[in-house]
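Because discrete structure vocabularies remain unfamiliar, we first show an illustrative case, written as a sequence plus integers encoding its fold.
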Amino acid sequence: MKRILAILCSAMLLLACVLPVAGLAETAAMMPKYVFLFIGDGMGTPQVTATQYYLGAVQNPDATHPIPAALSFTGFPYSGTATTYDMTSFCPDSASTATAMASGNKTLSGVLNYNVDKTQSFKLITEYAKEAGKKIGVVTSVSLNHATPAAFYAKSESRNNYYDIGIQGLTGTTLDYLAGGAFHHATGDDKDKPQQSLYDVATANGWNYVNTVDGIRALTSDSGRVLAANPDIQDDDAITYEIDRTRRAAAGEDVLSLADFVTAGTKVLDNDNGFFMMCEGGKIDWSCHANDAATTIEDTVAFSNAVQAAVDFAKDHADETLIIVTADHETGGLTIGYATTAYDTHFNYLASQTMSFTDFDSVIADLRTKNATFDDALAAIKQYYGLTTEAGQNLSLTEEDVAALKAAFTLSMQPEDARTLTDNDELLYGGYEPLSMAVSHIENNKAGLSYTSYSHTGLPVPVYAVGVGAEQFTGMYDDTDLFTKTMSVMGLTK
């Protein structure tokens, strides 16, 4: 009897060991039909955290203690960290880091999908996915042939070859949906020798070119191969900063958001074999270059809303979808904490800003045209940033603040080509409009935020994942591993 019991126990133990392995094998065999890769350009952990703290502050104004808010992706069940260095520097650029994620290879800053010697190009995850029968989408809040989106459909020795990059995307066979901003250098990189417009190239190659709000919102799976360019362009062929879009929306304008392009993409790309979509929140990076914290935070919110569009899609495809959220690098060296605020932060102060540095540059240009006085500038600063010379207010300007603004105003009232900038001016303004920069720095610092750079930094970036295969994205690894992991989860091999 004891022998029989022993045999039964052994059998049960063996079965207990086998079943979990079989279950794991079954899980591993599952591959996502729909894959979203979201890249918050310039979005390191400080940008995510600052956005959470800002939203928590404005949503809970009467709270006695800090309450950070959740973004659409911060609650994803799996998270990790990725290093971002390239073959040039620990502070990489968007071309090389996007290359790492698109091809699994390191390269030089400024290079798209070529090796260091620029003698060999790399095969892209989008090409592998296309060969597997999936449709391919690339969405961005900046220009369509900018470095990050370009890395997922083009190969170039220089990210600045905008026209050729556009040609590759439009005449190639990889893309089914290209959307967001407009083409940079749409008629060629030499303005004195214009070439055929990239939009004409698109239509000649069978693309359905759509550039109206209603037309983009009406896209379906029957719309064919779609080039969707935002009819509302703000700067360098990019879509509008979220802080400006929401201001204009409040005034009754209908301006498309990044989320709108993701939603349209899920409709265009839907098919029996599924799709791969890369979506970039590129203006997080641009606003960090300009040290504009309020604008950065609002564009991080726009990016979160775009991820939410994918989450909403996944609700109807729960067992078929993988969503990955990450960044290519951190920009600006954003820090939470400033010398004069010590251990205090005042994120709610940023809510007083209603305009991006880009739109405020236009206000400054108007002031310059009108030969405005410094008092006129102070009135505009109060209107759009809440900063005031009135004493006793949350955003009251100190004597030092006023002096800094006056010095910047003096420079900004001069034509750009007539300005003589010192080394200290370059440090203070980073090559941007002096008055815009001075205002942003004062606004940031009063809120308890600061930047250390006008460029990229070497910080690692966060990774968040949910859905089929999401467990593969935990831990700390290199950005090239994002390619390897995504390929593996999708069942693709090099």
